[in-house]
Amino acid sequence: MSAEIGFIGAGKMAEALIGGLIAKGVFDRDGIVACAPSAATRERVASTQGIRVLETAKDVCSEAGIVVLAVKPKHVPEVFAEGLDLSGKLLISIVAGLTLDKMNSYVPDTKNVRVMPNHCCMVLEGAMGYCCDQSLTDSDRARVASILEAVGLAVEVREDYMDAITGIAGSSPAFLYMVIDAMSDAGVLNGLSRADSIRLAAQSMLGAAKMVLETGKHPDVLRDEVCSPGGATIVGVRAAEDLGLRSAMIAAVDATVERSRDMSR
Ligand SMILES: NC(=O)c1ccc[n+]([C@@H]2O[C@H](COP(=O)([O-])OP(=O)(O)OC[C@H]3O[C@@H](n4cnc5c(N)ncnc54)[C@H](OP(=O)(O)O)[C@@H]3O)[C@@H](O)[C@H]2O)c1
Fold first, then answer.
1. pLDDT at 250 over 90
2. Is 173 near ligand 1, meaning CB less than 6 Å away?
3. What is the mean pLDDT of the chain?
């Protein structure tokens, strides 16, 4: 093998992963290859990432020991129709909705992994769930974790939880962008500029998220820590409760999970 890892597809998500793997030193540039049908993509990714970008999935599979499938769902059948030699290799798919069963139907003798990431991988702060075939050894699993953790937090789950992962991780940035936008409206309402309001709301969300992850405290405990008795924050908390902030967030995630279940039936 002349490359350690190869990407089938060289779009936004593949580039995010490639950038993370290089930045975190998981693989050298020399150990990474990718492919894309269009010359424009090949030239762009070769120049931005400093890796070799080949033409076909078959080229990638003949060079790489670990393969990441990062094409749009509609392109999956044509990729496997190339007759890929993936025997015994790790195949990590980030394709939405592509189940382990379906992967096994294309490549039965491959160690398959299904991942549901979110687009925050592009800033190396992704959140993702993944599930693995029984055939993966502990060292395969450790390898998969080290690859995914290059672009964020990765949690292994049973495959039947992948729809829940879609709601809590895959789609949830959309809901959080809505919260940031709404908070910035309140900033503008109170005289701040739009630009300052967006930056301050976004940084507050980033800081609060870090507090949860780094202190390990329950979010309710942290919320209580910023609410002085009789102060301004508890008044805001009551207003958010009165207007159903919690119920709205539960409903948003839950509706996404339901829709994801419907789509995979
Ligand atoms: N974007 C997200 O936020 C997100 C989140 C979760 C999961 N995902 C999943 O990630 C996957 C990739 O998404 P993306 O946003 O990175 O898509 P993208 O930017 O459109 O990239 C897709 C890449 O696949 C290449 N491609 C198309 N047909 C191919 C073929 N036959 N062989 C090899 N490569 C081929 C395209 O090449 P050309 O450039 O030459 O056309 C392109 O480089 C999707 O399945 C999506 O469900 C995405």
1. yes
2. no
3. 96
Q: What is the pLDDT of residue 116?
A: 97
The residue-averaged pLDDT of 191-208 equals: 98
Q: What is the DSSP string of 56-88?
A: -HHHHHHHEEEEEE-S-GGGHHHHHTT----TT
**75-126 residue pLDDT tens:** 999 999 999 989 999 999 999 999 999 999 999 999 999 999 999 999 999 9
Total residues found in the chain within this entry: 265
Centroid of ligand 1 to alpha carbon of 76 (angstroms): 10
Which string of b and e fits 150-186 if b means at least 16 CB within 10 Å? bbbebebeebebbbbbbbbbbbbeeeeeeebeebbee
Say if ligand 1 is within 6 A of residue 11 CB.
yes
- Residue identifier of the C-alpha nearest atom 17 of ligand 1: 11
* Distance between Cα 24 and ligand 1 center (Å): 23
Q: What's residue 23's pLDDT? A: 95
Ligand 1 neighbourhood includes 170 CB (under 6 angstroms)? yes
Structural domains of the chain ordered from first start: 3-162 (3.40.50.720), 170-264 (1.10.3730.10)
Q: Is the CB of 97 under 6 A from ligand 1?
A: no
DSSP symbol at 12: H
**In this structure, are residues 76 and 99 in contact, taking their beta carbons and an 8 Å threshold?**
no
- What pLDDT, on the 0 to 100 scale, is given for residue 2? 87
Residue 190 has pLDDT above 90, yes or no: yes
Residue whose Cα lies nearest atom 26 of ligand 1: it is: 9
Report the nearest atom of ligand 1 relative to the CA of 76: 31
For residue 206, the CA-to-ligand 1 centroid distance in Å is 28
Q: How confident is the model at residue 264 (pLDDT cuts 50, 70, 90)?
A: confident
Question: Quick one: tokens of 243?
Answer: 């207007």
Distance from the CA of 164 to the center of ligand 1, in angstroms?
22
